[in-house]
Design goal:
This protein has 264 residues and is mainly β. It has helices spanning 2-20, 32-40; strands spanning 49-53, 56-61, 64-69, 73-77, 88-99, 102-113, 131-134, 139-142, 146-156, 169-179, 200-201, 209-210, 227-236, 242-249, 255-262.
Length: 264
């Protein structure tokens, strides 16, 4: 009996020692500045651990969810990182690409520390997205950012023999957008860009889709002070009036929304 008791006592003493052997992941770079400085020297950062504070999160960048930090750092992922500006996160770098003076960084998330809340709830104000309804010929204007107008919608009988879709109706949407001062926060896009083949809802509430039809005017990135006239081809499985829901983050990171109701 004494021998069994002695063994149990020894095991109990060992448990805390094992726990003490677990170490927190230590960053190779404790902040964005030191990490970016090392990148500028051409150092290989694959597998390095970096800890930094989030400046901004752009969910609809050309590279997916874009966590911006430092001067030119863009930590990009196809999945939602569920972080906000001010949070401190620790990641492992898997790949770095230099593009137009910025760094596009793929990563694996290790830990997240939410930003400390300051002030009372009464002092906190949150900018709400502006959602507005428009029709053909109406212009949606976001001051200092852009204007967008659907100038026409035309049904076409043309069908693409190589498409797997069998739409009840196919429409060519013609639209115009002008850059009133928009600049891409991430620095990846060279100007303002809109397409109109997402956010389509048909007359029954079913989602529409982009359709590979004939268009003659293509959307382009538009610099400040310029405009573009473009077309999108969309398909719906139910005929009748449909809506186009447009969502875009402006140059300040504020989500802007508008809905265009279209009656062919």
């Amino acid at each position: 009996m004494r021998k069994v008791t002695s063994i149990l006592l020894t095991l109990l003493l060992l448990i805390p020692l094992v726990g003490c052997g677990v170490k927190e992941v230590q960053p190779d770079y404790p902040d964005a500045a030191s990490f970016e400085e090392a990148l500028d020297t051409g150092a290989d950062m694959t597998g390095k651990i970096v800890r930094f504070t989030v400046n901004e999160v752009v969910p609809d960048s050309a590279f997916g969810y874009n966590i911006q930090a430092g001067e030119h750092l863009n930590f990009c992922s196809s999945s939602n990182p569920k972080v906000s500006a001010g949070d401190t996160i620790t990641v492992e770098v898997t790949e770095v690409t230099s593009m137009m003076g910025s760094y596009i960084i793929s990563y694996k998330m290790h830990s997240t520390e939410p930003a400390e809340s300051t002030g009372s709830a009464e002092d906190t104000t949150t900018a709400e997205p502006q959602s507005v309804d428009f029709g053909i010929g109406d212009t949606w204007t976001v001051d200092g950012q852009w204007s967008l107008t659907i100038t026409g919608v035309e049904e076409t009988e043309d069908r693409n023999e190589y498409s797997e879709k069998s739409p009840a109706a196919v429409y060519i949407v013609t639209y115009k957008y002008e850059n009133l001062g928009y600049k891409d926060q991430s620095g990846i896009m060279d100007g303002l860009f809109f397409d109109m083949d997402d956010g389509i809802v048909d007359s029954t509430g079913k989602m529409g889709y982009s359709y590979p039809g004939d268009v003659t005017m293509y959307a382009q990135e538009v610099p400040e002070g310029a405009y573009c006239e473009a077309q999108s081809c969309i398909g719906v499985d139910n005929t009748g009036a449909f809506t186009i829901h447009v969502t875009k983050y402006d140059g300040t990171g504020t989500k802007q929304e508008a809905t265009f109701t279209v009656t062919p």
